[in-house]
Amino acid sequence: MSSEKSRRSGNEDPNAIVSVLRDDGTLDPAHDPHLGDDEVKFLYRHLVETRQLDERFVALQRQGRIGFHVGSLGEEAAILGSAYAMRKNDWLFPCYREFGAALMRGFSLQKLCDNMFGNANDTVKGRQMPCHYVCRAVNWASISSPVGTQITHAVGVAWGAKIRREQVASLVYFGDGATSSSDFHSGVNFAGVFRLPVVFLCRNNGWAISVPVERQTATHTFAEKAVAYGIPGVRVDGNDIFAVVAVTRRAVERGLRGEGPTLIEAITYRMGGHSTSDDPNRYRENQAVEAWAARDPLERVRRYLQKRGAWSDADEKNLKADIDARFRAAVAIAEKTPPPALESMFEDVYAKVPWHLAEQRNEVVSGPRAPTPHG
Amino acid sequence: MSSEKSRRSGNEDPNAIVSVLRDDGTLDPAHDPHLGDDEVKFLYRHLVETRQLDERFVALQRQGRIGFHVGSLGEEAAILGSAYAMRKNDWLFPCYREFGAALMRGFSLQKLCDNMFGNANDTVKGRQMPCHYVCRAVNWASISSPVGTQITHAVGVAWGAKIRREQVASLVYFGDGATSSSDFHSGVNFAGVFRLPVVFLCRNNGWAISVPVERQTATHTFAEKAVAYGIPGVRVDGNDIFAVVAVTRRAVERGLRGEGPTLIEAITYRMGGHSTSDDPNRYRENQAVEAWAARDPLERVRRYLQKRGAWSDADEKNLKADIDARFRAAVAIAEKTPPPALESMFEDVYAKVPWHLAEQRNEVVSGPRAPTPHG
Amino acid sequence: MALINMVQAINEALRISMRGDERVVVLGEDVGKVGGVFRVTAGLQEEFGEERVIDTPLSENGIVGSAVGMALYGMVPVVEIQFADFIWTAYDQIVNELAKYRYRSGGEYSAKIVIRTPVGGGIRGGHYHSQHPEAAFIGVPGLKVVIPSNPYDAKGLLLASIRDPDPVVFLEPKRVYRAAKGEVPDGDYLVPLESASIVRPGRHVTVLAYGAMLYEALDAAAKAADKGVDAEVIDLRTLWPLDINTVIDSVKRTGRLVVVHEAPRTNGFGGELVSLVTERAFFHLEAPPVRVTGFDTPFPYTLELEYLPLSHRILPAILSLARS
Amino acid sequence: MALINMVQAINEALRISMRGDERVVVLGEDVGKVGGVFRVTAGLQEEFGEERVIDTPLSENGIVGSAVGMALYGMVPVVEIQFADFIWTAYDQIVNELAKYRYRSGGEYSAKIVIRTPVGGGIRGGHYHSQHPEAAFIGVPGLKVVIPSNPYDAKGLLLASIRDPDPVVFLEPKRVYRAAKGEVPDGDYLVPLESASIVRPGRHVTVLAYGAMLYEALDAAAKAADKGVDAEVIDLRTLWPLDINTVIDSVKRTGRLVVVHEAPRTNGFGGELVSLVTERAFFHLEAPPVRVTGFDTPFPYTLELEYLPLSHRILPAILSLARS
Ligand SMILES: Cc1ncc(C[n+]2csc(CCOP(=O)(O)OP(=O)(O)O)c2C)c(N)n1
Ligand SMILES: Cc1ncc(C[n+]2csc(CCOP(=O)(O)OP(=O)(O)O)c2C)c(N)n1
Ligand SMILES: [Mg+2]
Ligand SMILES: [Mg+2]
Predict the structure, then answer these.
(1) Do B126 and D300 count as a contact with CB atoms less than 8 A apart?
(2) Is the ipTM of this complex over 0.95?
(3) Topology adopted by domain D197-322
(4) Taking 70 as the threshold, does the pLDDT of residue A171 lie above it?
């Protein structure tokens, strides 16, 4: 066991929440990550892009043009701020709500749309649901639906880097619900024991589909779960992108100094349904949603920029028009792109197609075609 | 989440260890469970019985008369003290080192020996390894080798009792290694959320086979893992049976008042090998073993009783002779008892034997016999 | 009698079980207020309260493990695993604990729980919302495995499963959750476990199917009839222990066997069925049995209808087998 | 060449792999100082240090999950699961993550790891130290499943498994860990995956076996020869993907098939083998294939030798099949 003093006897208030961006648009110097205006504008553009694409994808789903979407409405700052703190050679392990961060790191909008349509150009070759793309070029891991499983993977990457003496950290996204999973427990425990440079980013958005946080844990916070693993836990205002950047950067630096992982609880709120398959009116009142709307993470950054004279209404209008144009263009292409080739169904199961899959491939290719999805 | 104040901001020192029995044989009144001399003698007899049987079973294994034994050398007080605090209608979920507690609750030595020989009278019908007996009559659950799995079961029993408004608590034994398991995480978390009367009794004996506690967790203690579940964690001197009785009783009372579970870390030491299959000299120095020998849990109770004039050398001699006589008698019977009937292999898979098992049973019964185990 | 779908039928079975037996509790993720992501448990929490219809933390092994404990205590927990694809973290509890509890305790204890979980593809769910993992449970001694294909059976089989003394894995073919409608008695009734149903009698080929693929088998059989081939279609309903007599009798009559399942072919239940039939009716077989199954790949998204063993793949199998 | 046992042979394969490739690391419970509870990793930590031979916390899903992550990063983790019976908490990571990683990422990533684990009964281990769960891995698209029966194959197959680009579940028949001895070259060599070995050529019956049961099959074949029945015994070595040609060719020659495995019969690999053969060699079969397997019960303790498909049960199967 660690010879360090037990964390829980430390002096910090475990309920304290790190925040930087004040209501009046100024920054608390205590945690200010010192972002230049260009950096903040970069982040703001991606926040807006994320929100706007979320809305567009939901609309496409409602129109029956794509099958599914799982969005990040209200959680954009927690997602983009933490991703922004990760360096190019660090690895990111998404949960499923983080497409905005992938785009910010360089994943192309076209590829994202290809994934939403599951077409032949989809990076995952139409094999997974929408929002389950991959992008190795930006060290973005593959997305899996089972909750929590990516947590141990992020640990393994940081572990591999440590064994190889390479200065690489990993960040893993997961929700409040995922803290109940086996992989959360194993992953954080392993990272603690082996002092690995992992940032565990818990998006506490209040809900696991219809299950509220009180049903997930008897603790008051998620950050304090860090105590059980002998590592620091930090609570941060997840709707304050400055604060999220600051605490994530500190966690990365700590990890790379060999001091081990950090558990960050980003406090935010899932403003929409769990996904396009969910209707939150079935299980929650609108009041909380309204209260959280007043703390909208985009609005807060815009006010900050406007106050500094770094952002105008015209900028806003142009940005939105630009996003829309790029979105329309990408969707137009994605929608016209054919589905993956039949043969592709049998590739990548193994590095080479073995005899039984070759037989099955031949069976399909030479057999009758299936009915088309909608009749 | 619990509206209570976060546990880690409490004032108690998380490293404090509850102890009662002082070196001079007196008791610290702060935690004294107020056991009468008869009670202490009852406990002491069972402590001695447990140790003596452990030695005998190891000898039987060395002689090739039984296949396996997993003992409790050095951990007797942690095991018996906690079991003693549980009432008749409470349930106990053993790990695998707790046969002494089963005997104390009323499991018969004959049945234990039948299990060690896997004979026709074994409560588990020769289906499991030695030390994997069962005894429903004393609310003693079935023993399973996979580490940690019994933890969620104990939670389920307490949950069932709570739903039925019955005043029943459960106690579950597990080791330091088991705190890394998935079922530890799920079990303690569920019990916390639903405020169930479960006593989680972690025998911290320093080792998980050859893996020391530093490789199991980066925390300083196991008790502080309770913080992650919003429940109290208590450290107790596991070689002090008075202290173990006291903290366990408190945990049961708390649970039955509806205040939820408690995690108890009983600090003790595995004085022997992991089991008869293990040679600890391969991975540990003898120094720690010697240091712990000075804190032998049996010696401490004997000194206490002797100091009070409640125990004599003659008592000691008679006790040991009696245990030995009962042991020899039970082994003699167990060893002569035939193995379970062939047909029994196909029973209890389902409540009724289905067609395919009936067929397989006929196949065996009418087929040739297998070679005998030793040629 | 009312015309209802499978979701409603299962809901009725749960309601009747909970009304009739206080020991029955329902637990899982989102089973409470929202009534399950497929609405199967809708209204139960309102009627039976939060103590008997329980939203749990997100941990499948926690759900199954604590249900085992409840069962030891004498409750009858009916667990919902939101999608079968998410059952694997509970697999240790299922294989090593639930299935073996009676055996390993020499019959002193038993852990009677029912695990309900939606299975199968065709709902655009990709890898992780389409798995059909019956094989992983059929091979585990101690478990019973049930899968209804229609509302009548769904209700009667679930009522029987809850009352059966053994642990049951109850698979619900979600592709036909709402599509399969039928007349269902309002009250209590049982469809016995271990009894298959000859849904379409026939003379030339025996087709074994279950769950959502039953409809594909029936569609193929109807089309085969147009070409003069008379296929018998059997809905297995309980996969294990199998209603072996119905299966073997049929193959002895037809001499030809087609097995249909969505799961990958290799080591799927089809292999077991082919073996059982080959062992017991070898000299009645006119031609080698044929398996029409999902392929040995993870379940795909866009091409899911090419992956599934739908009517367009069953029909040629029936025809060529009948003519061989 | 030296006469060594399987434990030593596997140890050599690990040592050679670790010397030759810095990416190879070994992780598991008790693999370090103590060298594994079966001593398979003995001496490795001394040579390669604590960073490459890693004792982990007690969590199989943590071991496999973090090994998957290491593999994504380009390491080649060789995981030890202490007994196959304890692999189930890692089953989600194996089925949903490891096996599908290449497929679901469109080939952008792959998770190459080898999972070594001792399997099988006959060592007085009861339920939880005797399971032989190949079927649970063969049915999972994306995994390869290997099981050696002797030191030469163990070393060559493990070296090949570690270099193979796909995830491999490497099963080690612990009953013959020390009993099976053989001449093994000191250096590096490969036994190719997907190639079965005809250990005893014969004309009358094909016996498929693997792992510890190979010796029982050979013993039965020798006894059958005394009675004039000439059995061909094939050691499958790689269970999946199967060396289908060797199997089918043999059955086409003999016309008779016996499959032997320790795992329970139902939905075991035997069913798949019988189906594959029936599908491909039906008109060559003179009699129905026979499965000689473990029974459909949890693995028992006292009666384990009655449970196992030892020679005394294989012999009558060979004889009666040859005479039918
Ligand atoms: C192992 C597993 N169980 C259940 C599900 C179904 N499911 C999908 S998302 C979800 C809730 C996740 O909540 P949380 O972790 O808080 O993430 P959020 O969706 O709020 O971002 C559930 C139960 C799943 N995907 N995986
Ligand atoms: C899931 C699982 N993994 C591995 C093992 C092998 N094993 C048996 S006991 C043990 C160590 C357990 O240590 P701990 O929990 O501290 O209990 P102790 O034996 O010290 O009482 C291990 C690794 C097992 N039984 N179950
Ligand atoms: Mg959430
Ligand atoms: Mg221990």
Answers:
(1) yes
(2) yes
(3) Rossmann fold (3.40.50)
(4) yes
